Structure formats: C-alpha cells, structure tokens
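Predict structure. Chain length: 183.
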Amino acid sequence: MNNNRCFFIGIVLFFFVSCGKKECIHKFEILVEVESSHPCIPTGSATIISPIKPDFLYKIDDNDFQTSTYFTNLKTGKHKIYIKENDGCETIKEFNIDTLQMGIKFREVANILRIRCSSCHSGINPQAGLDFTNSCDILNNWNRIEARAIQGVPTSMPPSGLVSLEERMKLIEWIKSNHKYEE
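Prediction complete.
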C-alpha cells in the first residue's frame, strides 16, 4: 500500500516597482460651454460638452471631483476644468467666465453716478465707503442712491444739489425696474 502524501509549502511574493510618475498618453480636447456671471454674485455656469464617458470624473478649480459635467455658481474670471480618467490621468483646460452684459438702464445710471458722484465716491478711501465706479457698490446701495440723489433725504447728494430732473428720472426708472445690472 502506498501512502504517499504530497505537501506543498511555499511563499508567493508579488513585487511592484514604481519608478516615478506614470506617463499619461491619453490627452484629448476639452470642449466647454459657459454662461456669463453677474459681476457681484457668482451666477456663471460651465457645461463640459466633450469628452463625456461614464468612468470619467470632472472638477473645476480646487473643488472635489464629481460625475456631473455641469457646474454652477461660478464667479467671473479664469477657471480650470480637470477631467480624470479611470487610470488616474488628468487633462486640464483653462477657460473664462465673462461678466454679464451691462444693461442700458444700468449703464445710464452708472454714467450719471460716475459724472456726478465719483469725485467723492471713488478711489482708495471713498466717502461713506461707497465707490460708485464699482458696479457692485451701485447695485448694493440702490436704496441710498434713491434717498440721497432722488429724494434728498436726509440731505441731497451731490452736496451742490440734486442731479437734474432728467437724470433723476433715469435713476427712478432703473430703481422701479428692480435695480438690476442687466436692465
């Protein structure tokens, strides 16, 4: 009778050696569609049109990667889109979010304030902290503009007297149409 028993005792080792950074050769063109932003509130958006693959991840600037190709609440200025493939390779594209086009009513208001008010309300240390050469200061202080330049309450601005009736009517029209940048 043969009672041969076989035993195998061994150790299996796996070695992985990495010598520097992996070279990514899968480069592609990124196509992105953008929408402009309000100058004071980040309302811009970007949509990646291409490439779109189910195993890709997408991000803008220093935000986290996501599966969606749509990004909202972007401020005006330069941004970077990153596309990460499943092998870890990334492709980057820089793009710009422009400012919404200034509306005719706002342009008229900004011009009136620039001519009539910027001698005191501009520069490094503007009166009352209001720089009327800055669109956001105009938009965020429409009620003060109404009180001082239209109603003269508590005192008229500019100090030399209220702006002309024609200019006040343009200010009133802008305020009544919800004092918007794009109006």
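Summary: The chain has two domains: 31-97, 104-176.
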